[in-house]
Specification:
The structure is a single chain. This protein is mainly α. Helices cover 63% and strands 0% of the residues. It contains 9 helices and no strands. It is globular, with a radius of gyration of 16 Å.
Amino acid sequence: MTNFNVPGREEVSASNQEIFDSLKKALGMVPNLYAVMAHSDHALGNYLSFQNAKTEFSNKEKQAVNLVVSQVNECAYCQSAHTLLGKMNGLTEDQTIEIRKGGASFDAKLDALVALAKEITAQKGFVNETTINSFLQAGYSKGQVIELVILVAEKTAMNYLHAITKVAIDFPLAKTI
């Protein structure tokens, strides 16, 4: 089996060293899944641009999407990272678990978002019209349907990357559900 090491700062290109420095300053660490992307001279920078692109969704909503997508895609790394980030953005531990299960009974609008994100992920985009209509009726726009597909794709890329690299989880482990 191919082993993907987590490269240190001295093992990556100059441009990735700058990104490592920025991540360390902002987060206090370079997460292993970001670091492994530095095997490529371009992937980490490209991904961070993709991840930090403008969106109409709040950070809390983005974390809800990240949680449910990572659950559907069975990515323990991203479940763990986004449980922590979800709590930093106003979710409780119990709410992160409920979201991972595909709902958010504590917030009707967030519930519609989570349901559509889950269905987009599980059905590879072939979603039920009723789910889209519920999303729109909850107060989201058609533009946000498009943005949600992009958010699902962004998180799915990371889920797949972890499935391939199997780097160690360097966040507190999310509870198994």
